[in-house]
Structure prediction request, 243 residues.
Amino acid sequence: MNIAIVDDERREVEAAETYLRKYLHEHWAQEEPDIYIDTFNCAKDLLKIFKPGMYQLVIMDICMPEINGLQAAQIIRARGDNDVQIVFLTGNDDYILNGYRVFAVGYFMKPLTDHADEFAKTFEHIFPKLCRNNPELILSVDGAEISVPYRNIFYVDIDANHKLCVHLADRKFSTANSYAEIWEILSQDERFSECYHRIIINMDYVKAMKEDDFILLNDTLIPISQRKKKAVKVQYMRYFAHK
Prediction:
């Protein structure tokens, strides 16, 4: 698991990292060796390298120069990462409502040294999902097996050569796996929908639903089957109503 901490105040970055490592050591010692923490002094530095799926958690100050935390979160979502968990740092709770508009999962009041209990309680809610609910799809690609986290998959389809293709934000894999095999696996996860014959979408990456198409966050147009239209649209609306 990769975590980013972003704050223009160095002492707050150090405090967040200290509390986080202490919490991990006390409650998630088994997973601790596989958790990596990167720190940034401004949102601009994070965004220079950020790609969807790169981080599973971002802890970010709201009030920063040039690009503030809310703007950075909007950019992260616009780049197609709906899955990364975002927690804001703030000294003013007037910003909190705006934080939830970019699907933040929580916030910490600053200075962190005065709110250690709230820090721990927030992670009691976040970490079980991050550490234990991160399934991966095993694909056979060019004779080798690779693992692709479900959260990185935009959609799955069949190409002109009748090969199964798994599309991520910035690349795709042609795999020897059969469509039936992959659909049997992904259909067990509520975020995936077979919206058209031999096309599976990850509903987390839907930007808009039109009459006959879904528009994904990367502007890919995915058709909706006439035969399945009603059922697919009901599934989509129910998914986001309970998300």
